[in-house]
Amino acid sequence: MFITHLILRNWRNFRDVDIDLREVSYIVGANASGKSNLLDVFRFLRDISKESGGGLQKAINDRGGISKLRCLHARQHPVVHVEVHMSSDFDYETPEWVYILAFKPEGTGSHRTLITEEKVIHNGEIILFRPGNDDKTDEARLTQTHLEQIQANNKFRDISKFFSEINYLHIVPQMIKHADFIGGSHLDDDPYGQDFLRNIARTAPNTRRNRLNKIQEALALAVPQFKELKFETDELGRPHLHALYQHHRPKGGWQKEDQFSDGTLRLIGILWSLMESSSVLLLAEPEISLNDAIIEQLPVIFTKVRPSKRKRQVIITTHSEKLLSNKGIDARGVVILESTSDGTKARPINERETTTIKAGFSIADVALPKTRPSKIEQLSLWPQ
After folding, report:
1. Which of 47, 153, 248, 286 stands the most exposed, by the fewest C-beta atoms within 10 Å?
2. What residue segments make up the domains of the chain, in order of their start?
3. How far apart (Å, rounded) are the C-alpha atoms in residues 338 and 346?
């Protein structure tokens, strides 16, 4: 299943969002325009749905409360609205599934967040519509979604499971290199790499070996002098990755992950995540630490690498000229964020820009100038 369309009202930077998404979608915008906040709506739905606890109230509280979620430009309108359309193919004229969730602060009493609307539509048929009569007689029911309740979501558990499996990745190489020394509490569904090696260790041995073999083939093409990648546990049972590089010694030179370059660890993390499951994968600025030549090939990798015969949807935030210069990018999958005095606007490539791309220009040529800060040249005059 894929997310084909997204509608938001009063979500973080955005008063109104109404965009289509594709198998691979690129969210392009300036710093602080809301790229991460747009991705966060999918993480929000995941946090509501995940089996290991969560739910609406926790998902909101983890983000600092509804005041941090509601758009500052919403003025007096208190309701946050999230609407997601899903289908097994992007060519469906009408979505197979629609999930709508709207909520607002209670405003009095315990200051809870209350659901103002929860709706599920399956192939045009409404199978859930709230508030219902039961909600009206017991308002406390409106603090929980039916999405998060096993006893209530049996008719649409497919979408609850779909949301719960959404992955987010923004690997920080130092979190992998020094995970044992950093310590501290571990985040649920850790996106930064502290649990990355443990996730590899928990994977079935045959699956792990097959994935690492594919990654080894990619590294041999992308990393100079690289020859082999293997997984091992040390005498204390801690998992490690080892890489063999060509060396003047006959047996070459082996390195452990704490000796890998940041770019090598980022690339390993991206490739592993692409093969890990068939759920939606959210990638935040995958170009960080990577060589330009590798960045240019990422769009092809996103399209080709799959966990199985099924395609995997990837939604990416980026402002990389090299990545967006790849001529194979589907322009229909590009979303441009533009900051205005009335909040951030999200839009697709327009007709004029499409004509420019067909004339031979890249997505980078067309989209990045739209995200350029208008006064950026004055930065070189600072300090005065």
Report:
1. 248
2. 1-166+308-377, 167-278
3. 7
CA quadruple 226, 290, 315, 276: dihedral, nearest 10: 20
In this predicted structure, what is the pLDDT of residue 231?
94
Give the residue among 47, 138, 51, 26 at the shortest CA–CA distance from 101.
Answer: 47
Residue 175's pLDDT is what? Answer: 84
Q: DSSP assignment, residue 23?
A: S
Q: What is the DSSP letter of 115?
A: E
Percent of the chain exceeding pLDDT 90 equals: 60
Specify the residue for token string 């093969």: 275
pLDDT at residue 173, as a whole number: 87
Separation between Cα atoms, residue 343 and residue 147, nearest integer Å: 29
Total Cβ atoms within 10 A of residue 220: 14
Pairwise CA distance, residues 344 & 359, whole Å: 29
pLDDT of residue 182: 64
CA dihedral 45, 49, 50, 56 (to 10 degrees): 80
Q: Is 235 helix (H, G, I), strand (E, B) or coil?
A: coil
Q: What is the pLDDT of residues 133-150, one digit of tens each?
A: 888 888 889 999 999 998
Give φ, ψ of 118 to 5 degrees.
-140, 125
Picking from 167, 282, 267, the residue whose alpha carbon sits closest to that of residue 217 is: 267
pLDDT, residue 109, reads 64
Query: pTM here?
Result: 0.91
Confidence bin at 200 (pLDDT 50/70/90): very high
How far is C-alpha 253 from the chain's CA centre? Answer: 36
Cβ distance 111 to 133 under 8 Å? no
Mean pLDDT of the chain: 88
Residues 313, 23: contact at Cβ < 8 Å? yes
Main-chain phi, psi angles of 207, to 5 degrees: -65, -45
* Distance separating alpha carbons of residues 195 and 180, to the nearest angstrom: 10
